[in-house]
Amino acid sequence: PASQVLVVGCGNSELSEQMYDMGMCEDIVNIDISDAVIRQMQERNASKRPKMSYLLMDVLQMDFPDALFQVVLDKGTLDAILADEEEATLAKVDRMFAEISRVLQVGGRYLCVSLAQAHVLKKAVEYFSQEGWVVRVHQAASGGDKQQFVLPIFVYVMTKFKKVPGSAPQILEICPEEQDKPMRVESAEQLVEAVKDRQHYALLRSQLSKTTSGEQLSLDLCSKDSGRPRYTLHVVDSPSMKPSRDNHFAIFIIPQGRETEWLFGTEEGRRQLAASAGFRRLVTVALHREQHYEGMAGIQAELSGKVMELAPPGLPARQQVPFLSVGGDIGVRTVQHRDTSPLSGEYVVEDVKGDDKCYFRRLIFLSNRNVVQSEARLLAPAPLPGQKKRRKDRKKPGPAEPPSAIDKSYLCCEHHKAMVAGLCLLGSPDPLPGQHPLAVLVVGLGGGSLPLFLHDYFSQARVAVVEIDPSVVEVATRWFGFSQSDRMQVHVSDGLDYVAKLAAEAPAQYDAIMFDVDSKDLMVGMSCPPPAFVEKPFLQKVKTILKPEGVFVLNLVCRDARLKESVLATLREVFPLLYARRIDGEVNEILFCQPCSEGPRGAAELLTRARALEGALRQPGRPWDSSYVLADMLQAVKIL
């Protein structure tokens, strides 16, 4: 209350009057360049507020002595002056800031109320941070359930410090509406982006409160402590659903580790989920790895206020919004290993619980965190975090549990099943039960489940694996049960170079060649394989090392329709026979290419070959059921 306050560009705003009447401060000096406004405000306040003054003065050239004020308050003046980024306008703003700095005491504050357009915020932050001031941006509270404005209001708090010679570290902070503790940021650009996030969220809230959306909108809610994403929300509207009192709005918590499944990880899947749940607006919530959650009740308490900001129009007052999940729990996710590969970037190995109570181990590259790179079923799940064992002697802790064993007999990935099924296209109807060795080349190791399956269940198979990333070989060996033998060798090499070398040295040596290699270039509409692997000169080299009646199996993941047609056309130019197998619910399409002009003659021959392959898979003494592979074979290949 004892501070002397300067209000610049006061206009006829009631702000100073309200501060005076509330007892916040009385020694307030208001300035403006409008003579009419100053006379009006002097007449209105002379008798009611005798300690407050109104002066005709330009903020660009003030008559006050240096260091007179403890506070300079600006409500919208900077926004009005900085209407564009012309050179003359920026020069005026520099004069305004210099004058504010001159009349403000060290330790004093410049408070600027603003809509925080990007160019306005950036200019203010850069100017004062370079002067050595502490810069903090507050998001003003919206006040009540209904937003007064579509866009949020911000207050820049610039605290004046003496400028230190040399390069002193910048102190830049943002204090969002929903928390009191400010968050430190590293640069003016980061501060501008953080404010933009708040503005976009306000626009999203406004849009969702007025109408249903045909598109699925998504947003990340970040941890207050780390600033990292904690929840990913998708808003799914079903406007065609008939409204009733109880079907307006619900929240669905996706169990940990299952966010990549088709039902939860695709637009069509979420649309079906909303329809089956029976709500006109469903918000799905995915939980992020390496975040701690206090069960369903804890998540509900944490999210209740925020998700209500996404409520649909027409939601009855005080209606309870249900939180739904699968089986009523939040699932299990345990990160077993995290590291960084020079080639593939940061990755994690994690164990998750599936919908059938089985546990699975997954390899995920964090550059594309919504895609499971490799997956294997665990024979015995590791104990859950915090799970207590029944022990007769509870005083002594038991020994650590050994790592869970990998179930090598089970192919988790549907496209791997289809790739194995493609072996029934091999020229001999009975090539596998021991007549002669089967030579297979697999490009792309991942967790190693595909080459392991081929090695373990085709006793005559000799498998060569090409993997460009040594870190992936290490992960497959340590965490996915992969091992080499006299019948399976890994070559750490670029697949392009390896195939080219083989084509030059030893043509026609493989019965089957399988490509299951991902692209690191996320800007291309084809995530598997990299474009160079489907260029005609390289495909001709693949054909060279393939036996005349062999099969080339390619895992194609392409969302770009034109690019996909181009790839198929190129494949047809090289391989006379081309079969395709779509993977239900996935983008993957498995292509079977053969260099010979004649394939199986009709469904009967294909069925015979499939049963021969299935017979080869059923090895004596191996306790597993290959019927799921056989079922895939019987529908595996459909002629394009």
Automatic annotation (TrEMBL):
Protein name as annotated: eEF1A lysine and N-terminal methyltransferase
Top-rank lineage group of the source organism: Eukaryota
Annotated stretches, region: Disordered: 382-403
CDD domains reported in the protein's UniProt record: AdoMet_MTases
PANTHER family for this protein: EEF1A LYSINE AND N-TERMINAL METHYLTRANSFERASE, SAM-DEPENDENT METHYLTRANSFERASE SUPERFAMILY PROTEIN
Keywords of the record: Methyltransferase, Multifunctional enzyme, Transferase
Biological process according to GO: methylation
